[in-house]
Amino acid sequence: MSGSSDKAMMEYLNALLEEEHKPVADFDDEPVKRLLSQATILEIEPAADNEEVQVPEIAVTTPVAEPVETVEEPEQVEEIEQLEQPLETAEQSVAADESLATQPDAMEEYQQGDFQALFFRVAGLTLAVPLKSLGGIHTIGKISPIFGKPKWFKGIMTERDEKLQVVDTARWVMPEKLTPELQEKINYQYLITLSDSPWGLLCEELVDSEPLQPEAIQWRQGVNEKRPWLAGVVRQRMCALLDVNALITLLDNGLGHIQSEPSEKPE
């Protein structure tokens, strides 16, 4: 990358970490593919001495309208029924807020010592995920779309009798940057599954896997209320480090990359 592109990338990552919205310039995409060159599917097993990350189940409650003492006109009942549906997204957001607030910060563990991470690239943006939080890596197979889902939900991919839920990573992580021209250039090759969940992130390039030192990361301060999935920024690699637990919670609740805003409407 050129110096100006490097600076633009760092400004973009800092903007994500600080919950700001700043434009980012285009940059070259020349990663070195070092992983999955000979295998079609690579399953990554966590080390025996590492505890398995437990992902809490998220209960999404449906709002219940208060009882109406007397209902004489049918129009009043219809109005109450119509009000229940739009509240679902708000209830999902509240459920995610409560879950993220009560569960311990899983990323604190990684601030105590070196850990191994996988680096991958999507639409010019490099992302990193701790290997301990990685479920596996799959080459893309047939993806069956599902009607009525958000635009970032690509569909279901069946792998070894397991139904994986496929996320359009570029559209989920940086929808504000995803122009029609950029979208046409994206060529997804792999699906990276998250922990023991059915969720998988699409990626174009697998860059490499290497250890990270906590001091090399600009960690978030507390919980990033807008982007709880962003654990920090790896400055030397100019990439975003993912908080997989928070990411799974948001996906389970059907929420987009900014928690306080509703996800994109279905196509």
From TrEMBL:
Domain CheW-like: 114-253
GO terms under biological process: chemotaxis; signal transduction
Xref: PROSITE patterns: CHEW
InterPro entries cross-referenced by the UniProt entry: CheW-like_dom_sf, CheW-lke_dom, UCP020479_CheW
A family per Pfam: CheW
Entry superkingdom: Bacteria
Name of the featured protein: Chemotaxis protein CheW
